[in-house]
Amino acid sequence: MNICILSTNKKLYSTRRLVEAAAERGHDVRVVNHLRCYMNIASFKPSIHYNGEELERFDAVIPRIGASVTFYGTAVVRQFEMMGTFCLNESVAISRSRDKLRSLQLLSRKGIGLPVTGFARSPGDTSDLLNLVGGAPIVLKLLEGTQGKGVVLAETRKAAESVVEAFRGINANFLVQEFIKEAKGADIRCLVVGDRVVASMMRQAQEGEFRSNLHRGGSATAIKITPEERSTAVRAARIMGLNVAGVDILRSNHGPVIMEVNSSPGLEGIEKATDKDVAGMIIDYIVKHAKEGKTRTKGRG
Fold it and tell me: Do 100 and 219 fall within a single domain?
């Protein structure tokens, strides 16, 4: 197969591992920086150009789109869809998962467990907003934040009110969520490929920190998840429309709750924690399912 990986940096661990896994299986791989692509939006003959030439036809595309460039990255993915190329994760699914509010609303509508969550911009009654999620301690998140940035734990009501006032001052959209104390600073990352969880790890926040992101010094260990957690992760990925996803789960007193569904999950932490060839499983999935024109959205997203 001729496979394209959309990535801004071919040296990144996840990109390198996907290249290695594809090459080991005898496939041709090309890494393309999606930010340097430019497109011809032509009727009946859409094309993508890169470094002064029209890109060749690929059998499959693996999007590794960073959160900060979602708009342009998904535009490139959409162009590939219009050309009939199989995309591992489609443009609409990527956009859907990147919108924190939209993703939570979709998961809620399908009955997936979530932390009690409120959404606001400039609330007329801060006290009532905090009461919606049960009061302090409370987690406040900027809608555009990633990798734990823009996330604040307010341990007292006074602190929560101050953060809300600060967010209001910068005209920011934000989420307020109940703090799952029983999780003890740990969450579970489930790596979903197709209709199954192929690897899972527990991420533990370092002492004095409540965010378990590995970028923030958290540690990771392999973990055996429950059937309910496995089912929740697979359903969440399916609701987003993602073939490959990193689903973050907290263990709460009322069962597993979803924190986030990531459309470009990093492979380094989970491969090292579980000693599994996740990159290889992704390539195997593509080989089994990639067919020209096999896209749900046909570039309409």
Answer: yes
CATH number for the domain harbouring residue 154: 3.30.1490.20
Quick one: 49 and 156 in the same domain? no
Amino acid at 149: K
Instruction: Give the CATH number, domain containing residue 280.
Output: 3.30.470.20
Looking at residue 297, the DSSP 8-state letter turns out to be S
Tens of pLDDT along the chain (301 residues)?
999 999 999 999 999 999 999 999 999 999 999 999 999 987 778 899 999 999 999 999 999 999 889 999 999 999 999 999 999 999 999 999 999 889 999 999 999 999 999 998 877 788 888 898 888 889 988 876 555 567 888 889 999 989 888 888 888 888 899 888 888 878 999 999 999 999 999 988 766 555 555 555 567 899 999 999 999 999 999 999 999 999 999 999 889 999 999 999 999 999 999 999 999 999 999 999 988 766 666 545 4
User: 44 is in which domain, residue-wise?
Assistant: 2-94
- The torsion angles phi and psi of 103, rounded to 5 degrees, stand at -65, -40
CA distance 13 to 218: 18
State the amino acid at position 94 in one-letter form: I
What span, in angstroms and rounded, lies between the C-alpha atoms of 65 and 29? 17
Among candidates 150, 158, 157, 113, which has minimal Cα distance to 131? 157
Same structural domain, 88 and 163: no
| Residues 20 and 79 both lie in one domain | yes
| Number of domains observed in the structure of the chain | 3
249 and 271 fall within a common domain: yes
CA distance 176 to 153: 10
Strands 47-50 and 37-40: antiparallel
Q: Residue 274, SS3?
A: helix
What's the pTM?
A: 0.87
What are the residues whose beta carbons fall under 8 Å from the beta carbon of 275, sequence distance 6 or more? 222
Q: Residue 271 corresponds to which tokens in the numbers above?
A: 């491969």
